[in-house]
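Entry 12.
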Amino acid sequence: MPGNAIGKYRWTIVTLLFFATTINYLDRQVIGLLKDTLGREFNWSEEDYSHIVIAFTTAYAVGLFLFGKFIDIIGTKLGYVLSIIVWSLSAMAHSIVRSTLGFGIARSALGLGESGNFPAAIKGVAEWFPKKERALATGIFNSGSNVAAMIGPPAVAWLLIRFGWRSAFIWTGAIGFIWLIFWYRYYDTPARARAKGLSEAEFDYIHSDEGEEALTEKPTPISWGKVLGVKQTWAFVLGKFLTDPVWWFYLFWIPSYFNTTFGMNLSKSWIDVSILYTVSSFGSIMGGHLSGWFIKRGMPVYKARKTAMFLFALCVLPIMFIRFTDNVWVAVGLLSLAAAAHQAWSANIFTTASDMFPKHAVGSVVGIGGMAGSVGGILFPFFIGRLLDHFKLLGHLSAGYNIIFVICGFAYLVAWVVMHFLCRQMTRVTNLN
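Predicted 3D structure (tokens):
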């Protein structure tokens, strides 16, 4: 890792964030992997399932808005503790559900708890990394979502076959409590972590960016009104709104897409899904590395982020050609490229929040942007459910998926154009108090 000569404690922090994100996505994806099994048991239509997804994303959106500022107030350490306790208990609660309504309630509680992950993680990166390393650090922890998608399908398939679907919710939910032990032991702000092994040289390196403040014990509260009144917030918000729903689609519908398009159940399709997310994990890390590489070679921070994001937006476009293949491996290849590009995009768009805003405001901004992404994640599943049910009645379900993939292909270019014209140079905001 860069800068290891002056200390490595910050990489311990990003490792903790990586495992938290892995657990976060492992818990949320279980229902997508079990969609067809649960659909048969509870007689779900595509629209029924979309309503359950919407219950999760609605609670997630509300939670992001509230958790973002809450974490700015109480701090990253305690905010993460509360978040993971709520989401782990909620994940395990799925195992006792007996109705579709029960799943909606359990998913809502899970969404509320899981909403704390990204505001806390991005804030943690802003606290522990200089700008030139933030996209890489974000890419590393964000790759946990892909690792979860790699290990999730075989693990859930095994639990389903051996012990039934309820066991999948119990065991994946319980993992969060193990993570809490390590989080409480190792995490703190850099100012307090000197007693835990952080060197003075690494502390100085973390705060080496010109104009960057060290986080104080009691940061000055910020005004939501002022945050929403600057164009930098809206660039981040609209970028998330236009692209986050694509990832929700991959997470909740791709296992079912393989099943319905290629006649594969979970015991057969898990390897395809795992390969897809294995590839996308490299996209997350390399995407974070690319903008940092540009910065180290003298490119301005804003230009490095935008150049990288434009390249990743182009990499999503080939997903539109999935309609022309009946070969499952070609489909896996196209989906893998699109998913990898999304994760690379995500590593950089998250980092723009810490580029443009002071550390004590990052949680709030990420929460607002995450809420916008979740609102898109509410609207898109509603559209998907109606569209797929319509084409299912016509006997052409694949046509519905083809329309969705065209939308996914163009989403990132549209988002890039919007962000570019709203905030050309991503100038730093300083007047939020």
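Annotation: The mean pLDDT is 83. Residues 56 and 186 are 31 Å apart (CA to CA).
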